[in-house]
What we know:
The chain is built from eight helices and no strands. It has 239 residues and is mainly α. α3 packs across α5 (112-136), α6 (143-176) crosses α7 and α6 (143-176) crosses α8.
Amino acid sequence: EIFYFSNRLFGFYKGILPPILAETPKRAVKFFTFEQYKKLLGYVSLSPALTFAIAGLGSGLTEAIVVNPFEVVKVGLQANRTTFAEQPSTMGYARQIIKKEGWGLQGLNKGLTATLGRHGVFNMVYFGFYYNVKNVIPVNKDPTLEFLRKFGIGLLSGTIASVINIPFDVAKSRIQGPQPVPGEIKYRTCFKTMATVYQEEGILALYKGLLPKIMRLGPGGAVMLLVYEYTYSWLQENW
């Protein structure tokens, strides 16, 4: 019974290794490339509002290319219905995909277009909204109120970005997850998948999972931006 319970418990954590492995480089790529694209765009005559949005878009597209293989492996492991003990290892499953389907858009990079859309749109809104709104609302001299000001704007940024990009997230899950009929590929490309979901299930189907996503990326997005900003400021002052 203990063995059965532990298998059921670990089943909730299927596919946890790929996101753990991807999370650190993913965040590093997000913020590092945002700064680099922002610097590059400084040589072009663009308004600050457009600069932040385009730099965010660029960082999201770069981030998507890095994380997509991890997402394919994660989704595949989570969709696997075998018990935790019988499940292949993360690296073993990745090797299975490469051997069977290769590295391309049918293999380890399946759903890349949807992932590009998901991360590109999210970061464009996330960074664009945060920095533009932050520059409009006056800085507060009280450190606590200033922290709350930034946190509130970050919370809104993560929430709005989640609402706008979730159709890409739904498309990515359909493409990378198990197909409705085994051996038959129904969900193949990003926009065609969105159109199919809309036609067959209605507009609300493109917003499935929105509440959990907002609960995760609203406050999570705010925390990420604050950690980044305060760390960046500290490094500039001390290095």
